[in-house]
């Protein structure tokens, strides 16, 4: 279940808001210019599937979004818990950074934890299958796929170069919760 928690940056343990209500999540995030929508993610794809399979399965949605918003590049991050490079891939996004373009991601399987640092507030968003999130350019943030990653996200870029992160060098991300592994068998 998708979830939003909002913290003061000085209190990493007690969120001042915690909600799984999708309308409330969208409305809180809209206040900081972040788009949060639910899209149908019914194609039979799973974490670890090859990017081409994902792109073929979601071609219609991708083409629509590209036509509407003028994206130049689309790629896929698809990682299962068995991925041999999972630690390296996890480490790539774990520290505070920003992009010089909006960060638009459509989760079509699994989950991941986005955390945004806006002013003195920290917005932790648990994104799940079916969530489309659009974070404005220059927003400070980090992303945790967890130690046993299991997700597929389609990424949309307005820059031809694709993913470019600018790291701030702060340690704020280390002080906030990480993505907890799913419990149970
Ligand atoms: C959810 S897709 C992988 C993470 C990513 O692209 C990013 O920019 C995290 O900040
Ligand atoms: Fe990012
Ligand atoms: Ni700050």
What does this structure look like?
It is an enzyme of class 1 (oxidoreductase). InterPro entries: ARD, ARD_bac, RmlC-like_jellyroll, RmlC_Cupin_sf. Monomer. With 185 residues, this protein is of the alpha+beta class. It has a single domain (3-161), classed as Sandwich (Jelly Rolls). Helices cover 21% and strands 35% of the residues. It is built from five helices and eleven strands, in the order E-E-H-E-H-H-E-H-E-E-E-E-E-E-E-H. The strands form two sheets. Strands 1, 2, 3, 4, 6, 7, 8, 9 and 10 form a nine-stranded antiparallel beta sheet that branches. A hairpin with a 2-residue loop joins strand 6 (103-118) and strand 7 (121-128). The chain is globular. The protein starts with a strand and ends in a 10-residue tail after the last helix. 32% of the residues are buried. Fe (ii) ion (FE2) binds next to strand 9.
How far from one another are the termini? 18 Å
In CATH terms, the superfamily is Jelly Rolls
Rounded Rg = 16 Å
Query: In the residues, how many domains can be counted?
Result: 1
| CATH class categorisation | Mainly Beta
Return the string of H and E elements.
EEHEHHEHEEEEEEEH
CATH topology: Jelly Rolls
Give the structural class. Answer: alpha+beta
Q: Extract low-pLDDT stretches.
A: none
Give the biggest beta sheet: 9 strands, antiparallel
The overall pLDDT, averaged over residues, is 96
CATH architecture: Sandwich
Determine the number of helices (DSSP H or I, runs of at least 4 residues): 5
Q: What is the beta-strand fraction?
A: 35-45%
SS elements, strand count: 11
Bound molecules: the ligand CSCCC(=O)/C(O)=C/O, fe (ii) ion, nickel (II) ion
Helical content (DSSP H or I, runs of 4+): 10-25%
Which term fits the overall shape?
globular
Pfam family, one: ARD
Pathway: Amino-acid biosynthesis; L-methionine biosynthesis via salvage pathway; L-methionine from S-methyl-5-thio-alpha-D-ribose 1-phosphate: step 5/6
Keywords: Amino-acid biosynthesis, Dioxygenase, Iron, Metal-binding, Methionine biosynthesis, Nickel, Oxidoreductase
EC number: 1.13.11.54, 1.13.11.53
